[in-house]
Amino acid sequence: MSLALLARPALRQQTLVRARAFHASRPARSTHDDYHHLPFAWPTNKTVWAAKVTTYLVLGFSIPFIASGYQLHKSAGGSD
């Protein structure tokens, strides 16, 4: 008989005891009046924040199109 077969029940028992012993002292949720749907504080000047977000999104979305246009222009041998 293998030693691994003898060790399995003891290991399984130790794992079950460890799993049962885990408990939380209090719920991991905050109170309902302390809920914020954004992971950061809302800025005071919303116009500047909207301009920054719009710029970020437009630039991020346009980079693949600019890169593909550049690659197509480069591969066509255009020396304009």
TrEMBL record:
Entry's transmembrane regions: none
NAD among keywords: no
One GO location term (cellular component): mitochondrial inner membrane
GO biological process: mitochondrial electron transport, cytochrome c to oxygen
Domain of life: Eukaryota
Cross-referenced InterPro entries: COX7C/Cox8, COX7C/Cox8_sf
Keywords: Membrane, Mitochondrion, Mitochondrion inner membrane, Transit peptide
Associated pathway: Energy metabolism; oxidative phosphorylation
One Pfam family it belongs to: COX7C
Cellular localisation: Mitochondrion inner membrane
Record flagged with keyword Transit peptide: yes
Membrane topology: Single-pass membrane protein
Known function: Component of the cytochrome c oxidase, the last enzyme in the mitochondrial electron transport chain which drives oxidative phosphorylation. The respiratory chain contains 3 multisubunit complexes succinate dehydrogenase (complex II, CII), ubiquinol-cytochrome c oxidoreductase (cytochrome b-c1 complex, complex III, CIII) and cytochrome c oxidase (complex IV, CIV), that cooperate to transfer electrons derived from NADH and succinate to molecular oxygen, creating an electrochemical gradient over the inner membrane that drives transmembrane transport and the ATP synthase.
Family, similarity comment: Belongs to the cytochrome c oxidase VIIc family.
Assembly information from the UniProt record: Component of the cytochrome c oxidase (complex IV, CIV), a multisubunit enzyme composed of a catalytic core of 3 subunits and several supernumerary subunits. The complex exists as a monomer or a dimer and forms supercomplexes (SCs) in the inner mitochondrial membrane with ubiquinol-cytochrome c oxidoreductase (cytochrome b-c1 complex, complex III, CIII).
Name of the protein this chain belongs to: Cytochrome c oxidase subunit 8, mitochondrial
